[in-house]
Amino acid sequence: MDGSKTTPTPGESTSTPGAQPPAPVLVACAQLPLAVGDLVGNRAAADRAIEAAAAAGVGVLVLPELANSGYVFRDAAHAAELAEPLDGPTVTAWAAAAARHGMVIVGGFCERDEDGAVRNSAVLVDPTGVRALYRKAHLFGTEKAVFVPGDTRPPVVETAVGRIGVMVCYDLEFPEWVRDVALRDAELLCAPVNWPLFPRPEGERAAEVVRVQADAAVNRMFVAACDRTGTENGVEWTGGSVITDPDGFPLAGPATETGESLLVAACALDQARDKRIGEHNHVFADRRPELYSR
Amino acid sequence: MDGSKTTPTPGESTSTPGAQPPAPVLVACAQLPLAVGDLVGNRAAADRAIEAAAAAGVGVLVLPELANSGYVFRDAAHAAELAEPLDGPTVTAWAAAAARHGMVIVGGFCERDEDGAVRNSAVLVDPTGVRALYRKAHLFGTEKAVFVPGDTRPPVVETAVGRIGVMVCYDLEFPEWVRDVALRDAELLCAPVNWPLFPRPEGERAAEVVRVQADAAVNRMFVAACDRTGTENGVEWTGGSVITDPDGFPLAGPATETGESLLVAACALDQARDKRIGEHNHVFADRRPELYSR
């Protein structure tokens, strides 16, 4: 399964003239404490979050990056040992839960691909099964020693509640990558992340949150970034999960509490189809791609 | 004079092995109250700011967009009437002041070009004269009825204090445009802006400021955006001038006071030459341009 196969043609329109705007969907981020190597405990944490989200009426749930394995591996062999195939227990459980609850789940997992390579991957599952598999293309820190980067564009999936793009963590810091899903009409970008805590000036939001706000605003789409909480082998997580509107303002988060939490925001995803700012501007039509270099 | 002629080759290195890092330079934004059509008053406001900045030891001063003319024109004829050529009184005065005080000045002005077209332009002047002319490529709101957009890439100028990129206001909301000057080794991006005040949730920074923070962070360069203050023909300005470091955190501003103000920040511009994040990452080398579309 390849993310690019689920990717519609760029510019394909999804709006139906005369159709009623859909009701807002509840989008949630499950900010979880995970532990590297604790496959059973991590799966249980995701299960708890899924059941809580379903009980709250959530339509789209985002789980953190590497939600099956944890993040702070001893080495590449450790990651390989924890990796599982797309049809392994983690994604199978998420797909079953999506079908059971009629929801969309986007989560990150440590994947062993069909050639045995270890990938930092994310899936989008819905009641019909696995809709997209994405492999992180921009690797951070020691991930470079552990994972093979993906080399296909991030997926945009037409779901029952709207068009959803998927990427992972450091990918969000490349505006070209975010633009790519936006130009394919993603209304909501879901990003499993693991943001290590960096120092920041008193009173400032984490720079990762600020970049998510800008990602949303310049593309006029919703973004849901689901972070970790707690510490793991000496790495402290930012715990900065956030759901932003197309103006870039937070609808939920950034999370500040420690411990397990579920951020929920009602998102009228059809608002993201409107790329106009006032009467005279349109953030896509105003682009000058003929002048842009890569 | 064409901005592109002053643009060095992409990727050209400016560091000298073994050289001492230069002392931090004081960068300033002069947030001015301007009035459309008041050419004499507007020029006087810029003059006051230049003298105050010089007295404070400022090395790089940024003035607002359309600092000669004001912004809220009645119509295209009104803008044409206020426009002046590159060798008109405004840029001539700025160049003389730059020479007198040994400083760099970046300011926006309403330009009548060599063919008589009206442009929303910015110049970079230093003690040697006019180093770059840039014409805003992404026009906002009713500007589309008034100005001819530029069609050349934003300049990056090697000055005595560092490499400086120039663009104007809405240009900052196109990450492709910001990336372009960063990839040509701009250490500081100076942007004259006029940010009309939009509603925002209580406690939130203006979205324009957030986008500037992200522009800085994803490219690891300094950004100085110089806004207006006050109101003009019913348009209230955000007054959100800000100078950010390469992490995207504000060094000065965002301004909150109303009235004329000078924001000053000491910027060690050579820090922007280092695109590394930790041991394993480099925000340019980590890009995957072969996968990016335009």
List keywords for this structure.
homodimer; 294 residues; alpha/beta; Nitrilase/N-carbamoyl-D-aminoacid amidohydrolase; 6-stranded mixed β-sheet; 5 helices; 16 strands; 25% strand; disordered N terminus
Task: Please give the share of residues in helix of chain A.
Answer: 10-25%
What is the fold-level CATH name, i.e. the topology of chain A?
Nitrilase/N-carbamoyl-D-aminoacid amidohydrolase
Radius of gyration of chain A from CA coordinates: 18 Å
Oligomer state of the chains in this structure: homodimer
Low-confidence stretches of chain A: 1-16
Structural category of chain A: alpha/beta
Sequence of secondary-structure elements of chain A: EHEHHEEEEEHEHEEEEEEEE
Give a short account of the largest sheet of chain A: 6 strands, mixed
Which CATH class of chain A?
A: Alpha Beta
Outline of chain A: globular
